[in-house]
């Protein structure tokens, strides 16, 4: 293989690696917790998706790290994770229904001092939540082959998202067509009522004038 061929191969591998990293859906979130009350973060996720999140308390007062409570619920209110009096932790689950998954954090008791208390959340979904190191050890792959596996996972995730969007589009189209048909029916009914009322008024006026011998 010549120098030009090697350069082309390196460029292709670079594109594949960048593409696989691009579709690693991971989000780092910071929440400033009030002294009283709850702060929540949510994400709309469709079914059969792996979710993995790590959280840790970060306080300005390094001599005392306050504890927090954490509760994660599904779109239907099912409890997926609940911990109290912790400074860090992790939750992982596979979604069973489509909708908003909610993670709420609040401080345990009264926190003295003026220092701010924050929670760092590393929220991962889909292929970003997959343990690729374990996959590499189990299947004895590394380097370019591992990056190709990541890219394959990214392509599958994109395909699933496209199917999900297609399904949502079909549902929205059905709702829109049903709404349009109801609006058209209501318009026809309103027009019929107006015509009937107008005809009744004309008949009543004609009958009144005839009774008064005005016509």
From TrEMBL:
PROSITE patterns: GOLD. GO terms for cellular component: membrane. The keyword Cytoplasm does not apply. The chain crosses the membrane at residues 183-203. The keyword Transmembrane helix applies. It is found in: Membrane. Residues 38-150 form the GOLD domain. Pfam families: EMP24_GP25L. It is a single-pass type I membrane protein. Keywords: Membrane, Signal, Transmembrane, Transmembrane helix. Its main location: membrane. Belongs to the EMP24/GP25L family. This is GOLD domain-containing protein. It comes from Dovyalis caffra.
């Amino acid at each position: 293989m010549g120098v030009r061929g090697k350069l082309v191969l390196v460029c292709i591998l670079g594109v594949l690696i960048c593409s696989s990293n691009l579709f690693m859906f991971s989000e780092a979130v910071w929440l400033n917790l009030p002294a009283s009350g709850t702060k929540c973060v949510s994400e709309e996720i469709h079914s059969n998706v792996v979710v993995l999140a790590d959280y840790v308390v970060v306080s300005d007062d390094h001599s005392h790290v306050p504890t927090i409570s954490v509760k994660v619920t599904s779109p239907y209110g099912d409890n997926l994770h609940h911990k109290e009096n912790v400074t860090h932790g992790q939750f992982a689950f596979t979604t069973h229904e489509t909708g908003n998954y909610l993670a709420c954090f609040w401080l345990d008791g009264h926190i003295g001092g003026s220092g701010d208390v924050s929670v760092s959340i590393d929220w991962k979904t889909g292929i970003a939540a997959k343990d690729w190191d374990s996959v590499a050890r189990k299947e004895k792959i590394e380097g370019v082959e591992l990056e190709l596996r990541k890219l394959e996972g990214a392509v599958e995730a994109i395909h699933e998202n496209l199917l999900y969007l297609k399904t949502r589009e079909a549902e929205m189209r059905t709702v829109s067509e049903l709404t349009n048909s109801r609006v058209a029916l209501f318009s026809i009914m309103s027009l019929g009522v107006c015509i009937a009322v107008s005809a009744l008024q004309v008949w009543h006026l004609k009958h009144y004038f005839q009774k008064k011998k005005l016509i």
